[in-house]
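Morning run. Coffee first, then this:
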Amino acid sequence: MKKIRYFIILVLFLLSLISSIILSTKSASEICNASNGCEIVYYSQYNSLFGISNSYYGIIIFGFLSLFTIYYLTNPSFNKKIFLNLSILAGSLVALFFLYVQSFILNTFCRYCLVIDISMILALLLILPELKESLSHIKGKKNTIEYS
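And here it is:
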């Protein structure tokens, strides 16, 4: 069951990677319907960080996480699972922020952005049963540091 869970997560990462590639390589007029407000998201101040489009970050992050998930599936270890789980947790927090921005600040949505955000939240839901174990393992390691 755990292997199936991470295979589904891999598929979600690949969907997010494809969406990031589309957002990076296509113009707003090619991917946005003029009536749905997608261009507002595409050209908003929230579309980049440090002058680099978020979609480029997405290509790097989801490309890496896809490869790392394949590595985990072929050679599982507890530390790799912790890294994936914490990455999903961090990514889900970012996804929630972008959903908030689209919902309450921009009042419109980008369908490719939604694919990415919803994929991250679904990945979080898939790892929730294991997340507590990962976090308590990290907390336990902090408490087992020996001082000389």
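Strands lie at 48-49, 52-53. Good start to the day.
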